[in-house]
Structures are given as C-alpha cells and as structure tokens.
Amino acid sequence: xxxxxxxxxxxxxxxxxxxxxxxxxxxxxxxxxxxxxxxxxxxxxxxxxxxxxxxxxxxxxxxxxxxxxxxxxxxxxxxxxxxxxxxxxxxxxxxxxxxxxxxxxxxxxxxxxxxxxxxxxxxxxxxxxxxxxxxxxxxxxxxxxxxxxxxxxxxxxxxxxxxxxxxx
Length: 168
Known about the structure:
Strands 1-8-2-7-6-5-4-3 form an 8-stranded mixed beta sheet. It contains 3 helices and 8 strands. The chain has one domain (2-166): Aminopeptidase. The protein is mainly beta. It is globular. Helix 2 (121-126) links the parallel strand 6 and strand 7 (133-141). This is GNAT family N-acetyltransferase.
C-alpha cells in the first residue's frame, strides 16, 4: 500500500491498523539526456512483460503499478554479459505521438542485479532511446541505484510516497 508522504492523516490511519512504512518511493519526471561515455558489451533480450516472473532474479515484491500485471501493454528487456549471466532488467512502456515519434518513456522497473554494475545503467537506457526524451519513473525506490542515476541525468522528483506493509 502506498500513501503520499505528506498525507500524515492517512499514514496514521494505516499505522493504527498495523501497517508500517517499509520504503520511500519517488515519482520522477523530466527530460532524460543520458550520455553514453563508453559502450558496454552487453546482450539484450526483449521479452513480453508476462515472461518476467519466470526468471529467478525478477523481483515480485514491487508496487502494484509497477508489476508486470499492470504493464501488460509494455515491454521488457533483460541484459546479459558475455557469459550469458543476467546483469539487470527493465520494464517500461513507450508512448508514441501522432507522427510516430517517441513522446515519452515510462519506466516501471529498472534493476541492476549487482551494485558493481551501476555503470551499465546508461547502456540499459540506450537500448530504448539514443536521443533526449521525456521520461517518467513510476514509484522508484529512493535507494535504487537507478533512481540516483536518473536524478543526475535530467529527471526531478515530482511526488514522494511511502510504501507501507502490514506487520504481523
């Protein structure tokens, strides 16, 4: 369950029913202007969103808006190294304008599987756009390395939420 960070009344009500804040969530938006400084040698597999839960590294415990079930009309990519070891994955939707040009990219999940691969984030995003583009990241965890990368590359925080989970 999510609540707007400033909505103290709702948060207090949820806490009354044994919910506790488990994560900070950020909704980011802006013009992504990533600069690929060096090309990484990665291999990309494009799959349907409904295929993601069949991979052992897929994180099922995500905000409902960001789950594969909510993004069935979207796209997914898995990134591999030379040894066919998964490095990360992305769940997103491309919005096209009437002229057939990319209008916006909506990111629902952008995950690296090991912190040491943070330098690959520009290459992951390069697989969906090579030009400056309006981008929205929906309810990204504040501590996700991709969040910090996007903030450094043109996106701004537009909404802050808290994720709350039932405590038993």
